[in-house]
């Protein structure tokens, strides 16, 4: 059975003021884009009075999102960025907060971000390219031909977990622990991953203990080119309190794992749904260069981040009061018809392929964006070297129960040789 796009939904049967695009079931069912389409037309800065996260404003158009994302003097990231359920809801008593540098403003943000930037600088990416290519080839050569298997587990998780282990210099045999901690850090009870808040917090404490051991091993030695060593030696991060250290570790493993792995899966799904683009790619493998950013736009692995207004302002004709929470829906901005031509289509040879919001903009632009693109480019280059006639999605694509990450948890495929 081939997987089809989600059936149309009648979003106009719902009163406009009752639309709440933060509802996770809309994202898991992959129908939230229909709600975004209506909001972009009728209410692009949409006030939702009642949601699981309290009152908030949803920004849904490309240029408005850019405005919020690049004006940190007006829109603060401090304890407003949503990459952690406990941060947006307040969480249960005793929960793990997330004061990572993505939830900070300058100058603190800049100093902490700078401490890990060398790990994904161009010079280090050149060193990593050979390793990434060897691993991609090995994983692809291990896949069965003409048999069904789970692409997410066999390819996406395997490749990204190995890369993450390399970035933090953890033993490769521990790579699936990193994936598990990443899943727990973004999950909620009842999502199929976590059974209770207590379990979540226990597992995250386990994560903290593991990385504290890595930290202690590095603190007394010369600095090495891995993320933990860099944080242990940088002035801005070497004296972090435990919760802040754990928050930054979680940020790095989610940013280095979930986003790329979901784009690796999303690319296969996109080409399955657009066989004309697969034919175009097979005829001209050089199109990998423009296909990679198109995958990242089409998938939009980080669905939204939020900000808190530091002062009264106005956006899209709507008044925003000091203290209001403003959600930047990157997924909606990446489907904005006024900014992107045929935004619902997957087009691998777009004229301006990097015209997307998936990495954010301004001071909080994704620090690992080039590494993500490198991993995707190499994966598809290696796929095209192999005798794969096509990669067919053979059954239901299962999505995670979340509104902040556009995650795919299971995707059965068959490679036709």
Number of domains: 1
The name of the CATH architecture is Orthogonal Bundle
Span of the ends, CA to CA: 18 Å
**Shape annotation:** globular
Strand content: 5-15%
CATH topology: Cytochrome p450
User: How many H/I helical runs?
Assistant: 16
- Written as H for each helix and E for each strand, in order along the chain, the element string is HHEEHEHHHEHHHHHHHHEEEEHHEEEE
Q: Quick one: how many beta strands?
A: 12
Strand order of the largest sheet: 1-2-8-5-3
Helical amount? 40-55%
CATH class: Mainly Alpha
Specify the CATH homologous superfamily: Cytochrome P450
The profile of the biggest β sheet is: 5 strands, mixed
Rg for CA atoms: 21 Å
Please, what is the oligomeric state?
A: single chain
Low-confidence stretches: 1-5, 82-97
- Overall mean confidence score, pLDDT: 88
The helix-and-strand class reads: alpha+beta
SSE blueprint:
Elements: H1 24-28, H2 32-42, E1 45-48, E2 56-59, H3 62-69, E3 75-76, H4 85-89, H5 108-116, H6 122-141, E4 148-150, H7 151-168, H8 175-186, H9 197-219, H10 227-233, H11 242-255, H12 258-273, H13 275-283, H14 288-299, E5 304-309, E6 313-315, E7 318-320, E8 325-329, H15 330-333, H16 369-384, E9 390-393, E10 398-399, E11 408-410, E12 412-416
Parallel strand pairs: 2-8
Antiparallel strand pairs: 1-2, 3-5, 4-12, 5-8, 6-7, 9-12, 10-11
Helix pairs in contact: 6-7, 6-16, 7-8, 7-12, 8-9, 9-10, 9-11, 12-14, 12-16, 14-16
């Amino acid at each position: 059975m081939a997987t089809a796009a989600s059936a149309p939904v009648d979003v106009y049967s719902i009163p406009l003021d009752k639309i709440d695009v933060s509802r996770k079931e809309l994202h898991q069912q992959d129908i939230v884009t229909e709600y975004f389409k209506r909001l972009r037309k009728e209410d692009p800065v949409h006030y939702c009075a009642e949601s699981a996260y309290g009152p908030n404003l949803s920004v849904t158009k490309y240029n408005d999102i850019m405005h919020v994302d690049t004006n940190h003097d007006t829109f603060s990231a401090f304890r407003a960025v949503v990459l952690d359920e406990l941060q947006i809801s307040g969480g249960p008593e005793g929960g793990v907060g997330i004061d990572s540098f993505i939830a900070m403003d300058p100058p603190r943000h800049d100093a902490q971000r700078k401490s890990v930037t060398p790990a994904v600088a161009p010079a280090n990416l050149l060193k990593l390219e050979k390793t990434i290519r060897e691993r991609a080839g090995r994983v692809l050569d291990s896949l069965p031909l003409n048999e069904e298997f789970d692409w997410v587990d066999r390819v996406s998780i395997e490749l990204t977990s190995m890369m993450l282990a390399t970035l933090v210099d953890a033993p490769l045999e521990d790579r699936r622990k990193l994936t598990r901690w990443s899943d727990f850090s973004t999950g909620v009870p009842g999502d199929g991953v976590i059974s209770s808040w207590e379990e979540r917090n226990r597992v995250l404490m386990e994560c903290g203990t593991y990385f504290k051991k890595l930290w202690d091993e590095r603190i007394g030695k010369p600095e090495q080119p891995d993320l933990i060593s860099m944080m242990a030696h940088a002035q801005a991060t070497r004296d972090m309190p435990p919760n802040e250290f754990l928050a930054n570790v979680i940020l790095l493993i989610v940013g280095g794992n979930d986003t790329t792995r979901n784009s690796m899966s999303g690319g296969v799904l996109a080409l399955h749904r657009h066989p004309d683009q697969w034919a175009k790619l097979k005829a001209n493998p050089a199109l990998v260069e423009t296909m990679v950013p198109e995958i990242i736009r089409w998938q939009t692995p980080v669905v939204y981040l939020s900000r808190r207004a530091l002062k009264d302002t106005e956006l899209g004709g709507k008044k925003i009061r000091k203290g209001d929470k403003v959600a930047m829906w990157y997924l909606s901005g990446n489907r904005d018809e006024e900014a992107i031509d045929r935004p619902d289509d997957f087009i691998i040879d777009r004229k301006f392929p990097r015209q997307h919001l998936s990495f954010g903009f301004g001071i909080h632009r994704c620090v690992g964006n080039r590494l993500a693109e490198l991993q995707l480019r190499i994966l598809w280059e290696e796929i095209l070297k192999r005798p794969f006639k096509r990669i067919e999605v053979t059954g239901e694509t299962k999505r995670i129960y979340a509104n902040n990450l556009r995650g795919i948890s299971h995707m059965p495929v068959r490679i036709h040789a």
